[in-house]
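Support reply, case 0932

Customer input (verbatim):
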Amino acid sequence: MRRLLAIAVLLGIALCAFAQESSFQKRYSIEVGTGIPPLYMDYMTSADRLADRGLSIDKESAFYPVVSLSGVMRVSDKNEFTLTIGTSWCHHKVIQYSVFGIDPNGKPRYNLHDGKPAGWMDSSFKWSVNLNWRHLWNPENMATFYSGVGLGYAPALGSTPVPTLTPVALRVGGDHFYGFIECTIGAVATFAHGGLGWRF
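Our regenerated output:
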């Protein structure tokens, strides 16, 4: 119920802004972004399955890609409504240990003091969706500042909706193509999120 109420509030803000500027012609954008993964995300790889083959995960060398895809609707001169789908995962190094014998069950025994890199592996993908409202502070400039609030959902973070806050963001570009960088926290990314957009 709280999710529906929050979505209704965001929709109401966007519709009110559109009603106040009825002469405004709506425009749409597609944005592709990346950033720092959401806080508290747990990227699971089956350690038991790896251990049976004498493998382990080297998390110290891991990195965490983030990919997002946003649809943006400009509903007035200074307001936008966005829907973002994001995914993130862990890309980590795998260590292979040497065999030094066989146990009574016929399974190999591995020497945990003799390990060598055996390539890279990805964890399971973690998905999120985010509904956001943006306010453009100076929409007529090539360098536009904006702020935003929203609500997201990421199954890996639990069943409770995750609030999204973007205190400040910068968009730079022309009438059709632009780049953007956001200081944000939410279900899609944390601290930093940026990318490229195409307005049509």
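We compared this against your earlier run and they match. Two observations from our side: The radius of gyration is 22 Å. The domain at 2-43+63-91+124-199 is CATH 2.40.160.20 (Porin). Please reopen the case if you see a mismatch on your end.
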